[in-house]
Amino acid sequence: MITPRIEVDLGKIRHNTRFLVDHLKSQGISVTAVTKAVCGHPEIAQAMLDGGAIELGESRMRNVERLRKAGITAPIALIRTPMLSQVDQVVQCCDTSYNTEIAVITRLGDAALRKKSVHGIILMVEMGDMRDGIMPENIEAVAAQVNAIPGVALKGIGANYACLGGAVPDAAKMAAFSTIAREIKGASGSSMETVSGGNSANLPWALGHHPKGCINNLRLGEAILLGVEPVSGSHIDGLCTDAFTLIAEVIEAKVKTAPSSASFTDPALAALQLGPENVRSVRLIIAVGKQDIDISGLTLPKGVTFLGATSDHMVVGTVRSHTRVGGELRLQMNYSALMRAMAAPDITNVIKGNTSPWKPESRSCDDLRSALV
C-alpha cells in the first residue's frame, strides 16, 4: 500500500463524537464538530454528524466548499472571522459565521441581500485568550449595531480559550461569559440561539459539576479526533486516541558508528554528531520529514528512538534488528502533527470503518443552498 499514508478509522470518530454529544447533552450543551484539522474531509465530517454533532465548524472557505461539493447539507459555521474578499462565498456556503468586525458584518449583510437571504452572525467576545474577540465592555454596543444591519441576524455570541494566550476556561471565567450573554439578551432583545463557550479545552469544565449558566454549545475538534484534552494533553476517559495513524516507509536501515572527528579536515564534517562513540545501533531513515509534518508531534513505537529530522527525512534508532528497507512504522500524532499531515500533498488518506449510509454527491454551493431553503 502507498506510503506515507494516514489510516483514518471512522468508527472511532463516530464513537468519540457520540460519547461527547451524549455526555454534554445532559448539561444542555450541543456540539459543533470542527473539521479544520482534517481539511474539511467529507467522510470524516459525515462521521461526526452521524455521531450527533448539530453542525460543522470550519475556518477556511476552501474546506467549506469541499464539504458542500461533496454533498454535505448540514449547517456549517465559519469559525474564523471572514475575510472581506470572501464575503460572497461565506454567505453562499455558510449558515453562520463568527465575527469581530462591523465592517465585515456590513459586507456580509450586503452579500446576503444580493442573494435574498439572511446570514447568521455570532459575535466573538474577548475573554482573556487575546486572539479574536470584541472587548466585553464594547459587546453590547456592537450587538446593537449588528441588529441594525440589513441582511444579517444576530444568532449568538462565542468565546475562545487556551489557544493563543493560554487562558484556561475555569468556572469563574465561564460564569463571567454567561453573565455577558444574559446582558446582551436583555439589552438587544435577541433570542441568542447560540452561546458557544469555547473548544475542547472547555471539556473539564463542561463535564464537571459546575453550573453551565447560559452556555449551550462547544466547538470540538481535538477531543473528537484524538480523544485528548488540549491543555494537559491527557486522554479523556471513554474516548479513542488512535482514530488516526501515520504509516511511514523505511528507506534506509544501517548500523552506523559515530565517526572520529580527527579523521575529517572539513569543519562541517568534523562537527557531525551521529551518536555516542563506540555505540552500534540500527539507524532507520523514514520517508517523511519537516515538510510533511510537525515532527515534534509524533509518538514513536516502543523500542524506537528519535534521532533527528530534515525536510525530507526522519532518522530513528531502533533495537528492532528485523526492520528492513521497505518496512513500515506506525506513528501516532498530536493535533499539530495531524493538521500538517492532513494538509500535506504527499500523504495519502486511507479511510476505514465507513459503515454510514451516506454517499457523497457532487453539488455546487448554490445547488445546496437552494435545497436547504
Structure characterization notes:
The structure is a single chain. The protein is α/β, with parallel strands linked by helices and 373 residues long. The chain has 2 domains: 9-231 and 356-372, TIM Barrel (Alpha-Beta Barrel); 244-352, Lyase, Ornithine Decarboxylase, Chain A, domain 1 (Beta Barrel). It contains 12 helices and 16 strands. Strands 1, 10, 11, 12, 13, 14, 15 and 16 form an 8-stranded mixed beta sheet that branches. It has an 8-stranded parallel beta sheet with strand order 8-7-6-5-4-3-2-9. Residues 273-278 and 368-373 have low confidence and may be disordered.
Summarize the structure.
The protein is α/β, with parallel strands linked by helices.
What is the average of the pLDDT values? Answer: 91
Number of strands: 16
Summarize the amount of helix as a percent range: 25-40%
Q: Give the N-terminus to C-terminus distance in angstroms.
A: 44 Å
How would you describe this structure in keywords?
8-stranded parallel sheet, TIM Barrel, 8-stranded mixed sheet, disordered C terminus, 23% strand, elongated, Lyase, Ornithine Decarboxylase, Chain A, domain 1, 30% helix, 2 domains, single chain, 16 strands, alpha/beta, 373 residues
Write the SSE topology.
Blueprint (H helix, E strand, L loop, with lengths): L4 E5 H16 L4 E5 L7 H9 L4 E4 L2 H9 L6 E3 L8 H7 L2 E4 L2 H13 L4 E7 L13 H9 L4 E8 L11 H18 L5 E3 L6 H4 L10 E4 L1 H5 L17 E13 L10 H4 L10 E6 L11 E2 L4 E6 L4 E5 L9 E6 L1 H9 L4 E5 L12 H8 L1
Parallel strand pairs: 1-16, 2-3, 2-9, 3-4, 4-5, 5-6, 6-7, 7-8
Antiparallel strand pairs: 1-10, 10-11, 10-15, 11-14, 12-15, 13-14
Helix pairs in contact: 1-2, 4-5, 6-7
